[in-house]
C-alpha cells in the first residue's frame, strides 16, 4: 500500500512538472524521500521516474536520471557529516539541486524557480516530519 501511494505521489509530481508548473517537483519529492527514508532503493526509483520524466518532456532520455542519481548520492555522502533531517538542509539541498537541474535542462528564471523549489521542499518536509512524529507518538 505504501508503494502504491509513493508511486502515485511521484507520478503526480511528474504531472505537475510536465504539464502545469515548470518547477522540479520530482527532484523535490526524491530529495525528501531520500532524506526521510535513507534507503538505497531510492536509486532505481529515481532512474525509472527520471526516464519517464524525460520521455514526457521530450528531452534526452536519461539526462534527468543521471542528475537525480548524482544528487541523491551526494545526499547519502553527506549523511554522515551533517544532520540532514533539518529544514535548513532540505532548503539548501533542494535549492542548489533545482538550480543545477534547471541549468541542465535550460530553463529560464532559474534563480527564482530554485528559491521557490527550496521553500516548497521545506514546507513539504516539515509536513512529512510532523506526520511521522504523530505516528511515532501513537
Cα-to-Cα separation, first versus last residue = 20 Å
Number of strands: 0
Q: Helical content, roughly?
A: over 70%
Mean pLDDT: 83
Description:
By secondary structure, this protein is mainly alpha-helical. It has one domain. 80% of the residues lie in helices and 0% in strands. The protein is built from six helices and no strands. It has helices at residues 2-20, 25-37, 42-57, 63-77, 87-105, 110-137. It is globular and about 40 Å long. The chain starts with a helix and ends with a helix.
Short description:
This protein has 138 residues and is mainly α. The chain contains 6 helices and no strands. The two termini are 20 Å apart.
Q: How would the blueprint of this fold be written?
A:
Layout: H1 2-20, H2 25-37, H3 42-57, H4 63-77, H5 87-105, H6 110-137
Helix pairs in contact: 1-2, 1-3, 2-3, 2-4, 2-5, 2-6, 3-4, 4-5, 5-6
What keyword list fits this structure?
138 residues; mainly alpha; 80% helix
Amino acid at each position: 500500500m505504501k508503494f502504491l501511494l509513493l508511486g502515485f505521489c511521484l507520478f503526480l509530481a511528474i504531472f505537475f512538472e510536465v504539464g502545469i508548473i515548470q518547477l522540479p517537483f520530482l527532484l523535490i519529492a526524491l530529495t525528501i524521500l531520500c532524506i526521510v527514508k535513507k534507503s538505497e532503493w531510492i536509486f532505481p526509483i529515481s532512474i525509472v521516474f527520471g526516464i519517464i520524466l524525460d520521455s514526457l518532456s521530450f528531452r534526452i532520455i536519461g539526462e534527468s536520471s543521471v542528475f537525480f542519481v548524482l544528487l541523491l548520492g551526494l545526499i547519502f555522502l553527506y549523511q554522515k557529516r551533517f544532520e540532514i533531517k533539518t529544514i535548513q538542509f532540505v532548503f539548501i539541498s533542494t535549492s542548489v539541486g533545482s538550480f543545477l537541474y534547471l541549468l541542465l535542462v535550460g530553463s529560464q528564471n532559474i534563480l527564482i524557480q530554485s528559491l521557490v523549489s527550496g521553500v516548497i521542499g521545506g514546507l513539504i518536509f516539515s509536513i512529512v516530519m510532523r506526520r511521522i512524529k504523530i505516528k511515532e507518538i501513537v
